[in-house]
Amino acid sequence: MTQKDITFVADFLTEHFNEAPELYNRKGKYFNVERVGQYLKDEDDDLVSPPNTEGNQWFDFLKNSTHLKESPLLFPYYPEKSLHFVKRQMEGVIDQCLQKPAVVIGKSVHQAVCMSLYKTSQSEDSTPQLFKLPFLWNDKMSNIHYVLFTMLENSISKIHILRRHTDTSRSVSNGILAVEFGNFLNNSINESSDSSRCYSCLDAHFYDDETVTVVLKESVEQEGKERVLAQLPLS
């Protein structure tokens, strides 16, 4: 170590570890701890060396403001406490703020319809994932909610479209339907293709209120499987 390093350490010790007789009766803390570390202790005890807020512009501003001094919008300041204490206080306040909205929103939500899509075995471990890629869309012009999804077991070539009116008291025709791709694309892609060629849906999103975009792939297990990007009108 150089002399400069030794001087630096000595100055640090002199500043932060001086004896402090006023602390003799406080659980054996007979000297000032390092001033950063005290803020990180997960304790409710007061800081050994609280910060000096004299001349702080923000505190002076609050002190001289009759409106802000007691404002419930300002989080209270605890100059004697560590950051862990302040964090717990803030989390408590935030939890309290969220409780009422959670109750109100929860009471306003109710089940509009229930549909049985498939049945699984009792053992969750052996249950395959059958429900895939739900995509939500809200048509604000018609006030209709759409959900696109696929079922992976016996209908990989189908995409299901569920629609509900935003006003739950009203219904829409064909509330749920399925579109099957099968081999209807063969003529447009390859005139000489085998009629058994089949396509399944990789992904599907609404393009706009009237159009659905789907990414299809050949269902046969072979190299060079074709991918098709198709635009399907809802009509």
UniProtKB/TrEMBL annotation:
Signal peptide: none annotated. One of its GO terms (biological process) is cell division. It comes from the Eukaryota. It holds the Pfam family WD40_APC4_C-half. Residues 136-235 form the Anaphase-promoting complex subunit 4 C-terminal half WD40 domain. InterPro entries: APC4, APC4_C. Keywords: Cell cycle, Cell division, Mitosis, Ubl conjugation pathway. The keyword Zinc does not apply. The keyword Ion transport does not apply. GO terms for cellular component: anaphase-promoting complex; nuclear periphery. This is APC4 protein. It comes from Heliornis fulica. The lineage of its organism: Eukaryota, Metazoa, Chordata, Craniata, Vertebrata. The gene is Anapc4.
